[in-house]
Prior knowledge:
This protein is an all-alpha fold.
Amino acid sequence: MNRRGFRKLAAVRLDDAKALLNANRYDAAYYLGGYAIECALKACVAKLTKRYDFPPRNAGSLYTHKLEDLTKAAGIEKQFKQDRDQDQTLAQNWDTVKDYSEDRRYELRGKNVAVSARDFLEAIGDNQHGVLRCISNTGRRTN
């Protein structure tokens, strides 16, 4: 998949996550919200590669679901930290998002996670201080 595909997929998965949240499907909303961030970070990684293509599978460290590891692989870690240092709301949003775990897709927490799923998606999708917006902007500036 190429950079453009990852960017589009990030936006689509965030929309999907919001639809699931509205349908009270909190576990799935959380999972797809995290997937949206992964896709945005992988778009930044893809920008670093030849012709913006995502590296082959043998580049194992890039095929992770750990968001902090992906910020490093994308080459945006330093700028993204500076952005968070200058924007307290963004920093709080990142604190909400950074510990995303793909393993939660195997958990059924139902309504117990309603508030955290809602907060998670707001932290991702906030139009001014959202993690997805900032990652996209940081990726454009640094790569």
